[in-house]
Amino acid sequence: MSNPNTPARTQQAVPAEEIVALALNEQGFLLQQRILEEIQIPARGALAHGWQVRAVEYPVSVGSGRDTRVDIVLTDGTLGQACWHLVLECKRAHPDYKRWVFFDRTPREAIRGDCYFIETADLGGTWAPHERPEPPMTHRIDARPAAHHCGIYNFYVEARLERPNSGRKASATDAIEDAFQQVTLGQAGLGRRLREMHNLKFRTVPVVVTTADVLVADFGARSVSLERGNLQAENLKLAPHPWVAVNFRINDSLVRSGMITSNTGRDVAEDAFCRHLRTIFIVQAKKISAFLEWFERDFPKG
Questions:
Q1: Residue 183 pLDDT exceeds 80
Q2: N or C terminus: which one in the chain shows less Cβ crowding within 10 Å?
Protein backbone atom coordinates (compact mmCIF):
# COMPACT_ATOMS: atom_id res chain seq x y z
CA MET A 1 0.00 0.00 0.00
CA SER A 2 1.39 3.40 -1.01
CA ASN A 3 2.03 6.17 1.44
CA PRO A 4 -0.67 8.89 0.96
CA ASN A 5 1.94 11.55 1.76
CA THR A 6 4.10 10.48 -1.19
CA PRO A 7 3.36 12.14 -4.60
CA ALA A 8 1.85 9.64 -7.03
CA ARG A 9 4.43 10.61 -9.67
CA THR A 10 7.68 12.49 -9.42
CA GLN A 11 8.09 15.00 -12.24
CA GLN A 12 11.17 14.31 -14.32
CA ALA A 13 13.77 17.01 -13.88
CA VAL A 14 14.00 19.42 -16.84
CA PRO A 15 17.44 20.84 -17.66
CA ALA A 16 17.77 24.52 -16.76
CA GLU A 17 19.05 25.25 -20.28
CA GLU A 18 15.81 23.98 -21.79
CA ILE A 19 13.69 26.16 -19.52
CA VAL A 20 15.80 29.25 -20.22
CA ALA A 21 15.72 28.57 -23.97
CA LEU A 22 11.92 28.44 -23.81
CA ALA A 23 11.90 31.72 -21.87
CA LEU A 24 14.23 33.42 -24.39
CA ASN A 25 12.18 32.15 -27.33
CA GLU A 26 9.01 33.73 -25.94
CA GLN A 27 10.52 37.23 -26.30
CA GLY A 28 11.75 39.19 -29.30
CA PHE A 29 15.27 40.01 -28.13
CA LEU A 30 16.86 37.06 -29.93
CA LEU A 31 15.78 38.32 -33.35
CA GLN A 32 17.10 41.80 -32.58
CA GLN A 33 20.44 40.31 -31.51
CA ARG A 34 20.63 38.24 -34.69
CA ILE A 35 19.79 41.21 -36.92
CA LEU A 36 22.52 43.28 -35.26
CA GLU A 37 24.98 40.47 -35.93
CA GLU A 38 23.91 40.30 -39.58
CA ILE A 39 24.26 44.06 -40.04
CA GLN A 40 27.63 44.39 -38.36
CA ILE A 41 29.39 41.11 -39.18
CA PRO A 42 28.07 39.60 -42.43
CA ALA A 43 29.05 35.99 -43.09
CA ARG A 44 30.91 36.89 -46.27
CA GLY A 45 33.42 39.08 -44.45
CA ALA A 46 33.76 42.82 -45.06
CA LEU A 47 30.67 44.99 -44.78
CA ALA A 48 29.10 45.57 -48.18
CA HIS A 49 27.25 48.67 -46.98
CA GLY A 50 28.17 51.84 -45.13
CA TRP A 51 25.41 51.84 -42.50
CA GLN A 52 26.42 52.24 -38.87
CA VAL A 53 24.55 51.11 -35.77
CA ARG A 54 24.15 54.29 -33.74
CA ALA A 55 21.77 53.10 -31.01
CA VAL A 56 19.93 50.03 -29.73
CA GLU A 57 16.74 50.16 -27.64
CA TYR A 58 16.84 53.96 -27.99
CA PRO A 59 14.16 55.67 -25.80
CA VAL A 60 12.01 58.30 -27.53
CA SER A 61 8.75 60.08 -26.79
CA VAL A 62 6.13 62.08 -28.64
CA GLY A 63 4.68 63.54 -25.47
CA SER A 64 1.52 62.80 -23.47
CA GLY A 65 3.08 59.66 -22.06
CA ARG A 66 3.57 58.05 -25.47
CA ASP A 67 7.01 56.57 -24.92
CA THR A 68 8.71 53.77 -26.80
CA ARG A 69 12.13 52.37 -27.64
CA VAL A 70 13.52 52.10 -31.15
CA ASP A 71 14.99 48.61 -31.61
CA ILE A 72 17.89 49.75 -33.82
CA VAL A 73 18.90 53.14 -35.26
CA LEU A 74 21.18 53.07 -38.31
CA THR A 75 22.81 56.08 -39.97
CA ASP A 76 24.73 56.43 -43.22
CA GLY A 77 27.61 58.24 -41.54
CA THR A 78 27.01 61.68 -43.07
CA LEU A 79 26.30 63.53 -39.83
CA GLY A 80 25.67 67.19 -40.58
CA GLN A 81 25.10 66.46 -44.28
CA ALA A 82 21.43 65.45 -44.51
CA CYS A 83 22.14 62.28 -42.53
CA TRP A 84 19.81 59.36 -43.22
CA HIS A 85 18.43 57.49 -40.21
CA LEU A 86 16.81 54.07 -40.58
CA VAL A 87 14.41 53.25 -37.72
CA LEU A 88 14.34 49.44 -37.42
CA GLU A 89 11.58 47.46 -35.71
CA CYS A 90 12.33 43.72 -35.43
CA LYS A 91 9.14 41.65 -35.62
CA ARG A 92 8.76 37.89 -35.33
CA ALA A 93 5.82 36.53 -37.29
CA HIS A 94 3.06 34.60 -35.54
CA PRO A 95 3.61 30.87 -36.19
CA ASP A 96 0.06 30.50 -37.58
CA TYR A 97 0.23 33.59 -39.83
CA LYS A 98 3.75 33.54 -41.17
CA ARG A 99 2.89 34.71 -44.69
CA TRP A 100 2.71 38.49 -44.96
CA VAL A 101 0.92 39.28 -48.21
CA PHE A 102 0.93 42.73 -49.84
CA PHE A 103 -1.32 43.82 -52.68
CA ASP A 104 -2.69 46.71 -54.75
CA ARG A 105 -0.01 48.91 -56.35
CA THR A 106 -2.46 51.45 -57.75
CA PRO A 107 -1.28 54.96 -56.74
CA ARG A 108 -3.92 56.32 -54.38
CA GLU A 109 -2.56 59.83 -53.91
CA ALA A 110 -3.89 61.95 -56.75
CA ILE A 111 -1.31 64.72 -56.34
CA ARG A 112 1.85 62.60 -56.11
CA GLY A 113 1.43 59.22 -57.81
CA ASP A 114 3.86 56.33 -57.26
CA CYS A 115 6.17 57.81 -54.63
CA TYR A 116 7.94 57.09 -51.37
CA PHE A 117 7.04 59.55 -48.60
CA ILE A 118 10.10 60.41 -46.49
CA GLU A 119 10.34 62.52 -43.33
CA THR A 120 12.80 65.32 -44.12
CA ALA A 121 14.30 68.16 -42.11
CA ASP A 122 16.31 71.01 -43.62
CA LEU A 123 16.63 73.53 -40.82
CA GLY A 124 18.50 76.48 -42.22
CA GLY A 125 18.50 78.60 -39.06
CA THR A 126 20.67 78.54 -35.98
CA TRP A 127 19.90 79.00 -32.29
CA ALA A 128 21.73 79.16 -29.01
CA PRO A 129 22.48 75.81 -27.33
CA HIS A 130 20.17 76.57 -24.39
CA GLU A 131 17.22 77.42 -26.65
CA ARG A 132 14.61 75.06 -28.03
CA PRO A 133 14.12 75.36 -31.79
CA GLU A 134 10.80 76.64 -33.04
CA PRO A 135 8.65 74.14 -34.98
CA PRO A 136 10.34 74.41 -38.39
CA MET A 137 8.42 74.87 -41.60
CA THR A 138 11.18 72.94 -43.36
CA HIS A 139 10.46 69.78 -41.36
CA ARG A 140 8.23 68.05 -43.87
CA ILE A 141 7.32 64.90 -45.80
CA ASP A 142 9.08 64.62 -49.18
CA ALA A 143 7.76 62.62 -52.14
CA ARG A 144 10.44 60.68 -54.04
CA PRO A 145 9.72 58.60 -57.17
CA ALA A 146 9.53 54.90 -56.38
CA ALA A 147 12.29 52.55 -57.50
CA HIS A 148 11.36 49.74 -59.88
CA HIS A 149 13.00 47.15 -57.63
CA CYS A 150 10.80 47.97 -54.63
CA GLY A 151 7.09 48.36 -55.28
CA ILE A 152 4.70 50.31 -53.05
CA TYR A 153 1.54 48.57 -51.86
CA ASN A 154 -1.62 49.87 -50.26
CA PHE A 155 -2.94 46.82 -48.42
CA TYR A 156 -1.64 43.84 -46.49
CA VAL A 157 -2.78 40.69 -44.71
CA GLU A 158 -1.27 37.86 -42.67
CA ALA A 159 -2.26 34.48 -44.13
CA ARG A 160 -2.29 31.08 -42.45
CA LEU A 161 0.29 28.52 -43.53
CA GLU A 162 -2.34 25.77 -43.61
CA ARG A 163 -5.98 25.71 -44.64
CA PRO A 164 -7.97 26.72 -41.55
CA ASN A 165 -10.30 24.27 -39.85
CA SER A 166 -13.91 25.15 -39.21
CA GLY A 167 -14.21 28.25 -37.08
CA ARG A 168 -10.59 29.35 -37.55
CA LYS A 169 -9.72 32.48 -39.49
CA ALA A 170 -7.55 32.30 -42.59
CA SER A 171 -6.15 35.78 -42.05
CA ALA A 172 -5.15 38.47 -39.56
CA THR A 173 -3.58 41.93 -39.61
CA ASP A 174 -2.73 42.40 -35.93
CA ALA A 175 1.03 41.74 -36.15
CA ILE A 176 1.55 43.96 -39.21
CA GLU A 177 -0.55 46.80 -37.79
CA ASP A 178 1.27 46.58 -34.44
CA ALA A 179 4.65 46.70 -36.19
CA PHE A 180 3.60 49.69 -38.33
CA GLN A 181 2.23 51.62 -35.35
CA GLN A 182 5.35 50.89 -33.31
CA VAL A 183 7.88 51.83 -35.99
CA THR A 184 6.13 55.09 -36.95
CA LEU A 185 5.84 56.05 -33.28
CA GLY A 186 9.59 55.45 -32.99
CA GLN A 187 10.19 57.47 -36.17
CA ALA A 188 8.19 60.45 -34.87
CA GLY A 189 9.93 60.30 -31.49
CA LEU A 190 13.38 60.11 -33.09
CA GLY A 191 12.56 63.13 -35.28
CA ARG A 192 11.67 65.14 -32.18
CA ARG A 193 14.90 64.10 -30.43
CA LEU A 194 17.05 64.95 -33.45
CA ARG A 195 15.52 68.41 -33.61
CA GLU A 196 16.06 68.92 -29.88
CA MET A 197 19.73 67.93 -30.42
CA HIS A 198 19.93 70.71 -33.04
CA ASN A 199 20.44 68.41 -36.01
CA LEU A 200 19.93 70.72 -38.97
CA LYS A 201 19.54 68.13 -41.72
CA PHE A 202 18.20 64.59 -41.42
CA ARG A 203 15.96 62.02 -43.08
CA THR A 204 14.17 59.27 -41.15
CA VAL A 205 12.86 56.06 -42.70
CA PRO A 206 10.85 53.36 -40.85
CA VAL A 207 11.84 49.74 -41.56
CA VAL A 208 10.16 46.57 -40.25
CA VAL A 209 12.43 43.51 -40.30
CA THR A 210 10.41 40.32 -40.04
CA THR A 211 10.76 36.55 -39.97
CA ALA A 212 7.60 36.29 -42.07
CA ASP A 213 7.55 35.20 -45.70
CA VAL A 214 7.06 38.41 -47.70
CA LEU A 215 4.73 37.75 -50.63
CA VAL A 216 3.09 39.92 -53.26
CA ALA A 217 -0.42 39.06 -54.50
CA ASP A 218 -1.15 40.03 -58.10
CA PHE A 219 -4.72 40.14 -59.35
CA GLY A 220 -6.92 42.45 -61.34
CA ALA A 221 -9.42 44.54 -59.42
CA ARG A 222 -12.11 43.46 -61.89
CA SER A 223 -11.60 39.88 -60.69
CA VAL A 224 -13.24 40.85 -57.40
CA SER A 225 -16.96 40.14 -57.34
CA LEU A 226 -19.22 43.15 -56.87
CA GLU A 227 -21.92 40.83 -55.51
CA ARG A 228 -19.85 39.21 -52.77
CA GLY A 229 -16.61 41.22 -52.66
CA ASN A 230 -14.43 38.12 -52.94
CA LEU A 231 -11.76 36.68 -55.25
CA GLN A 232 -11.29 33.23 -56.79
CA ALA A 233 -7.92 31.53 -56.27
CA GLU A 234 -7.45 30.96 -60.01
CA ASN A 235 -7.38 34.74 -60.55
CA LEU A 236 -4.51 35.22 -58.08
CA LYS A 237 -0.73 34.95 -58.51
CA LEU A 238 1.71 34.96 -55.59
CA ALA A 239 5.41 35.84 -55.75
CA PRO A 240 8.02 36.06 -52.97
CA HIS A 241 9.90 39.35 -52.51
CA PRO A 242 12.90 40.14 -50.30
CA TRP A 243 11.38 43.50 -49.36
CA VAL A 244 8.45 45.75 -50.26
CA ALA A 245 7.12 49.18 -49.27
CA VAL A 246 3.76 50.30 -47.90
CA ASN A 247 2.41 53.84 -47.87
CA PHE A 248 0.98 53.94 -44.35
CA ARG A 249 -1.28 56.62 -42.91
CA ILE A 250 -0.41 57.47 -39.32
CA ASN A 251 -3.02 58.56 -36.79
CA ASP A 252 -3.86 62.25 -36.56
CA SER A 253 -2.90 62.34 -32.88
CA LEU A 254 0.62 61.20 -33.81
CA VAL A 255 0.79 63.86 -36.52
CA ARG A 256 0.01 66.55 -33.95
CA SER A 257 2.28 65.26 -31.17
CA GLY A 258 5.13 64.37 -33.55
CA MET A 259 5.32 68.02 -34.67
CA ILE A 260 6.51 67.09 -38.17
CA THR A 261 4.94 70.17 -39.70
CA SER A 262 2.38 72.87 -39.02
CA ASN A 263 1.37 72.87 -42.69
CA THR A 264 -2.07 71.76 -43.76
CA GLY A 265 -3.22 70.98 -47.27
CA ARG A 266 -5.77 72.88 -49.28
CA ASP A 267 -7.85 69.71 -49.69
CA VAL A 268 -7.88 66.20 -48.23
CA ALA A 269 -5.44 64.77 -50.81
CA GLU A 270 -2.83 67.44 -50.16
CA ASP A 271 -3.41 67.26 -46.40
CA ALA A 272 -2.79 63.49 -46.46
CA PHE A 273 0.51 64.03 -48.25
CA CYS A 274 1.64 66.93 -46.04
CA ARG A 275 0.84 65.26 -42.74
CA HIS A 276 -0.21 61.60 -42.69
CA LEU A 277 1.68 59.53 -45.25
CA ARG A 278 4.82 57.57 -44.30
CA THR A 279 6.50 54.94 -46.44
CA ILE A 280 7.43 51.86 -44.41
CA PHE A 281 9.82 49.26 -45.81
CA ILE A 282 9.14 45.63 -44.87
CA VAL A 283 12.24 43.45 -45.13
CA GLN A 284 12.60 39.70 -44.73
CA ALA A 285 15.13 39.14 -41.95
CA LYS A 286 17.37 36.96 -44.15
CA LYS A 287 17.64 39.82 -46.66
CA ILE A 288 18.50 42.72 -44.34
CA SER A 289 22.10 43.09 -45.57
CA ALA A 290 20.99 43.05 -49.22
CA PHE A 291 18.33 45.67 -48.43
CA LEU A 292 20.88 47.97 -46.79
CA GLU A 293 23.16 47.63 -49.81
CA TRP A 294 20.26 48.46 -52.16
CA PHE A 295 19.10 51.43 -50.09
CA GLU A 296 22.59 52.89 -50.02
CA ARG A 297 23.26 52.26 -53.71
CA ASP A 298 19.99 52.60 -55.63
CA PHE A 299 17.39 54.30 -53.43
CA PRO A 300 16.24 57.57 -55.06
CA LYS A 301 17.59 59.92 -52.42
CA GLY A 302 17.66 63.04 -54.58
A1: yes
A2: N
Q: Are 193 and 60 a contacting pair, CB within 8 Å?
A: yes
Among residues 73, 204, 80, the alpha carbon closest in space to that of 142 is found at 204
Run of H or E including 236: none
At 170, which amino acid appears?
A: A
Query: Would you say 203 and 85 are in contact if contact means Cβ atoms under 8 Å apart?
Result: yes
Question: Under a CB-based contact definition with an 8 Å cutoff, are residues 170 and 164 in contact?
Answer: yes
Q: What is the pLDDT of residues 56-68, one digit of tens each?
A: 999 999 877 688 9
Q: What is the mean pLDDT of the chain?
A: 82
User: Are β-strands 115-122 and 99-103 bridged in parallel, bridged antiparallel, or unpaired?
Assistant: unpaired
Question: How far, in Å, CA of 27 to CA of 259, rounded?
Answer: 32
Q: What is the pLDDT of residue 250?
A: 85
pLDDT of 111: 58
What's the length of the chain? Answer: 302
Q: With a threshold of 0.90, does the pTM exceed it?
A: no
> For residues 96, 97, 98 and 104, what is the CA-based torsion angle, rounded to 10 degrees?
160
